[in-house]
Write a structure and sequence with these properties.
The chain has helices at 92-108, 117-134, and strands spanning 5-10, 15-28, 31-36, 42-45, 49-55, 60-73, 76-86. By secondary structure, the protein is an alpha+beta fold. It folds into two domains: 5-88, Sandwich (ATP Synthase, domain 1), CATH 2.60.15; 90-134, Single alpha-helices involved in coiled-coils or other helix-helix interfaces, CATH 1.20.5. A hairpin with a 4-residue loop joins strand 5 (49-55) and strand 6 (60-73).
């Protein structure tokens, strides 16, 4: 049987996950990466996306992550994210409202110069990922 790894997902406000797991898969800036016990150490930046992990009872969990860094060690994965939410904590209505606001801003972008296109695009991406996360079974 493979060894366990300790997973910690932390934001500036709180600890989102801190538990022993079998495997972690996360959206790195160079693509999704997976970590099992004994993994070679590395450090990477994170993209906005869905992190998955399997607990010791082989149940899969999903966490929204946006921005930050991940460090993998042979027995631990630490994710320092700008924002992170467990699937069960995502407010679907709030995410839909954020998506609508961002889409509206981006639609107006062509006619207004005071729109921050990159912020609106990032907001749209975060909202879209949260909505997709809630839909996972």
């Amino acid at each position: 049987m493979a060894g366990n790894i300790h997973l910690e997902v932390v934001t500036p406000e709180k600890i989102v996950v801190s538990e022993e797991v079998q495997i972690v898969a996360s959206p790195g800036s160079l693509g999704e990466f997976g970590v099992l016990s004994g993994h070679t150490p590395f450090l990477t930046t994170l993209n906005t996306g869905i992190m998955r992990y399997t607990d010791l009872n082989e149940k899969e969990y999903y966490v929204f992550v946006s921005g930050g860094f991940a460090e993998a060690l042979p027995d631990k994965v630490t994710v320092l994210a700008e924002s992170a939410e467990r699937r069960s904590d995502v407010d679907l209505e709030r995410a839909k409202a954020a998506m609508e606001r961002a889409e509206k801003l981006l639609a107006e972008e062509r006619s207004r110069e005071d729109i921050d296109f990159s912020r609106a695009s990032a907001s749209l991406e975060r909202a879209t990922v949260r909505i997709r996360l809630v839909g996972l079974s």
